[in-house]
Recover the amino acids of this structure.
């Protein structure tokens, strides 16, 4: 069985993105350790711009690797407040640190509490990873 890191704090989509609600109620979003391992070496990311609107469970960008181009699914609807320019300049940061310095965007959610219900907690996401393995 493969060994994937799953953090207890974030919420997850079934499409392998994570969301961490910050103290100011914005949401930091990235792809999971599982996703970056499946993609292998990430070469390019396409992300929205600050001010763009994103929709829960819709793609907000793409991650391109030596293996595939994969859509990145948004865990929350809202407005993009920040984009991690470090990963735009060096997408390999995602492979090195998908939950920390490899975050992708920060969103000001439009319906945080209701949309949380559509996401997986770490236990449910871990169970899903074990099913895939």
């Amino acid at each position: 069985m493969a060994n994937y890191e799953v953090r207890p704090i974030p919420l997850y989509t079934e499409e392998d993105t994570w969301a961490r609600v910050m103290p100011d109620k914005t949401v930091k979003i990235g792809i999971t350790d599982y996703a970056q391992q499946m993609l292998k070496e990430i070469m390019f990311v396409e992300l929205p711009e600050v001010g763009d609107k994103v929709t829960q469970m819709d793609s907000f960008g793409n991650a391109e690797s030596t293996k595939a181009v994969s859509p990145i699914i948004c865990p929350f609807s809202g407005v993009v407040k920040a984009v991690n320019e470090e990963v735009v300049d060096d997408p390999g940061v995602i492979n090195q640190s998908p939950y920390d310095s490899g975050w992708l965007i920060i969103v000001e959610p439009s319906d945080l509490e209701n949309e949380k219900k559509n996401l997986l907690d770490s236990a449910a996401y871990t169970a899903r990873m074990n099913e895939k393995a």
The first helix runs from residue 33 to 39. The CA atoms of residues 80 and 107 lie 4 Å apart. The helical segments are 33-39, 85-89, 92-96, 112-116, 122-132. The chain has one domain: 11-112.
